[in-house]
Each structure stands twice: as C-alpha cells, then as structure tokens.
C-alpha cells in the first residue's frame, strides 16, 4: 500500500512540475528585451563582485531565454576559473574552459565545451555553482529545471558545494512542487 501511495504522490508532483514548466517557460520568454538587457548587465556585474572568493566556478552557457552570463563567463575564462557542464548521457561532465568561442551546440542547441578547447576537471575542485532554472521558490530554495535532474544529482554528490540559483525576479514561484530527490540551493540570485 505504501508503494502505491508513494507512486501516486510522485506522479502528482511530476504532473504539477510539468504544468509549472509550461507556465514558467512562457513567462520567461515574455520578458521584454529591455528588461532582459538591464537584468543581464546587473546580474553579471553583481555576480562578478560576489564570485571573487571562489576558485573554480561552475557556470552555464545560456540556452533559450535563460539569463545570459556570457560577460561573467568571459571574465572567469580569462582568469582560468570558468567551469562549464557537458551532458554525457544523464550525467554532467565538468570542463575547465579558457575560451568561450570554442563552445559547440549539442543536439538540444545548448552550447557546451568541446574537448579541443577545454579540459575535464574533477568536480570536487568546484567551489561555487551558478545554476539556472525555470522557476525558483524563495522559501525552500528549490528550483525547477527542465526535468532531467542533473543538477540535483551533482548537489547530492557534492553536498558542501555552494549553489546559487540564477534567474529573473519573474521566475519566483512560491510553493514550487518538489520531490524527495530535489535539492535546495544555497541562495537565489534573481534580478
């Protein structure tokens, strides 16, 4: 009986997440160009100042309507501190990246490091992770991503990793549905 209840609860949470994803994707796409540019500029400057005490920083190459961290990533790359993810199956591989020009789109269109312009790095060396999402709950610090669970698995593997959720204020979603495997972030940096 417990197994049936758990599966029912899990299915309900998964369905609620899927509904939220559709809503949050549409909302994020609707952010105006002027708002997006102002937020991007502010976020990159603010994060640059806040990242100074961290050695290797896992960031992301923005995809679709995500908040772009390309200016920050360029500065981190010049300093030899930029780490970017690459999907391998259902897992993230982390690469130290020195040049953003060598990123290549994967099958989903997400820019990733290529082995020609980046080298594999031990994930335990990463001290800060900048993690995008579709929605963020400021009370629980949970994020809603695209549903593959790759960042949750990374945070499970490295529980002491400082993880900041990155996005727009418009992505706040109170009472975001969550499941047992979802991990909280350290803080949210929403602009």
From TrEMBL:
Known EC number: 6.3.3.2
Cofactors (names): Mg(2+)
InterPro entries linked: FTHF_cligase, FTHF_cligase-like_sf, NagB/RpiA_transferase-like
Residues where substrate binds: 66
UniProt entry keywords in alphabetical sequence: ATP-binding, Ligase, Magnesium, Metal-binding, Nucleotide-binding
Keyword Hydrolase: no
EC class (word): ligase
GO terms, biological process: folic acid-containing compound biosynthetic process; tetrahydrofolate interconversion
Molecular function (Gene Ontology), one example: ATP binding
Pfam family, one: 5-FTHF_cyc-lig
Protein name as annotated: 5-formyltetrahydrofolate cyclo-ligase
Provenance organism: Candidatus Protochlamydia naegleriophila
């Amino acid at each position: 009986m417990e197994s049936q209840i758990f599966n029912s609860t899990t299915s309900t949470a998964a369905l609620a997440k899927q509904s939220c994803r559709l809503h949050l994707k549409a909302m994020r796409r609707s952010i105006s160009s002027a708002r997006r540019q102002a937020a991007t500029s502010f976020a990159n400057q603010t994060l640059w100042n806040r990242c100074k005490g961290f050695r290797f920083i896992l960031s992301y190459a923005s995809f679709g309507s995500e908040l772009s961290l390309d200016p920050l990533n360029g500065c981190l790359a010049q300093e030899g501190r930029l780490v970017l993810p690459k999907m391998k199956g259902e897992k993230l591989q982390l690469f130290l990246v020195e040049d953003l020009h060598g990123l290549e789109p994967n099958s989903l269109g997400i820019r990733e490091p290529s082995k020609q312009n980046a080298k594999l790095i031990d994930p335990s060396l990463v001290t800060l992770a900048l993690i995008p999402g579709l929605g963020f709950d400021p009370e629980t610090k949970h994020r809603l991503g695209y549903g593959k669970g790759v960042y949750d698995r990374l945070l499970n593997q490295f529980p002491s990793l400082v993880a900041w959720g990155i996005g727009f204020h418009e992505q706040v979603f109170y009472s975001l549905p969550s499941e047992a495997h979802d991990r909280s972030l350290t803080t949210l940096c929403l602009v």
